[in-house]
């Protein structure tokens, strides 16, 4: 399966190099679209990528997904989305779902348990879902924060809850840190039932996501604690390996949990 990658940063770079080095059975690297032009990877134009790929991995952020995702699918190429938070925009999600003939796939990224949430929600609507994300305080500074708030956040000695509310709003406010809230909402099948919180902790060596859910199917609690990416601490180091696992499953489906 010829696989192209859009974005060669902390996530896309790991994915592209693993594909280049032949570590994903059944998949090869067809090229990379990245304005930085990493010298050790075959950088191509988007048109060339679409002409030589069966699958395209989006690893360049929410804006890139909105700009090129529909084009990838319309060209008949399958699309694996990393920036799931962009799908908080219902119009974009609808556009991607109708853009085929390519198929849309979502990466699980930094969390698990999505399959069970989806199964429980399919049995009967979930009554309550929460996801609390805790990260190192300095990594949660956002461009929209006033200078004073940003400085207090960098200097805080205690955990601070920065935001709690509907998953759609939290995802929009923390686009590099709350893709997981979007993934949970999409698995639950209802954005309105999911409450998300972002907590800054100056002592947080690991990034944690605590997911709880209740409904007629049962009561669930998942806790995930990931090591941040050394290159981009707003993301977890495991994320590119989740993407590689998804590519492997698409390239050579054998025993696959879906």
Q: How would you explain this protein's 3D organization?
A:
The mean pLDDT is 93. A five-stranded parallel beta sheet has the order 2-1-3-4-5, with helices on both faces. It contains nine helices and ten strands. It is globular, with a radius of gyration of 18 Å. The longest helix is centred in the N-terminal third of the chain and has 13 residues, at 62-74. The protein has helices spanning 12-20, 46-52, 62-74, 90-97, 114-123, 147-155, 167-173, 179-188, 239-251; strands at residues 2-6, 28-33, 55-58, 78-81, 104-106, 128-136, 160-166, 194-201, 207-215, 218-226. The protein has 258 residues and is α/β, with parallel strands linked by helices. Helix 1 (12-20) links the parallel strand 1 (2-6) and strand 2.
Rg calculated over all Cα atoms: 18 Å
Secondary-structure class = alpha/beta
Report on the biggest sheet.
5 strands, parallel
- Contiguous uncertain segments of 5+ residues: none
What is the β-strand count? 10
Count of helical stretches: 9
Mean pLDDT: 93
From the N-terminal CA to the C-terminal CA, the straight-line distance is 20 Å
Q: Helix share of residues?
A: 25-40%
Strand content: 15-25%
| H and E string | EHEHEHEHEHEHEHHEEEH
What gross morphology would you assign? globular
Spatial order of strands in the largest sheet? 2-1-3-4-5
């Amino acid at each position: 399966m010829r696989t192209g990658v859009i974005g060669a940063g902390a996530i896309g770079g790991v994915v592209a190099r693993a594909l280049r080095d032949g570590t994903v059975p059944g998949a090869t690297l067809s090229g990379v679209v990245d304005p930085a032009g990493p010298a050790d990877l075959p950088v191509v134009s988007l048109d060339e990528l679409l002409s030589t790929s069966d699958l395209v991995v989006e690893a360049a952020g929410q804006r890139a997904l909105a700009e090129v995702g529909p084009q990838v699918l319309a060209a008949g190429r399958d699309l694996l989305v990393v920036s799931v938070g962009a799908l908080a925009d219902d119009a974009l999600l609808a556009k991607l779902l109708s853009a085929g003939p390519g198929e849309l796939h979502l990466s699980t990224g930094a969390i698990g348990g999505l399959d069970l949430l989806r199964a429980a929600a399919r049995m009967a609507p979930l009554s309550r879902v929460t996801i609390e994300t805790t990260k190192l305080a300095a990594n949660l500074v956002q461009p929209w924060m006033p200078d004073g708030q940003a400085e207090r956040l960098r200097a805080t000695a205690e955990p601070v809850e920065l935001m709690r509310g509907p998953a759609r709003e939290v995802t929009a406010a923390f686009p590099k840190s709350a893709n997981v809230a979007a993934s949970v909402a999409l698995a639950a099948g209802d954005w309105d039932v999911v409450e998300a919180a972002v907590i800054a902790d100056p002592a947080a060596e690991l990034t944690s996501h605590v997911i709880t859910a209740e409904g007629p199917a049962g009561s669930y609690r998942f806790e995930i604690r990931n090591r941040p990416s050394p290159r981009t601490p707003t993301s977890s180091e495991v994320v590119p390996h989740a993407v590689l696992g998804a590519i492997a499953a698409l390239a050579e489906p054998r025993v696959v949990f879906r």
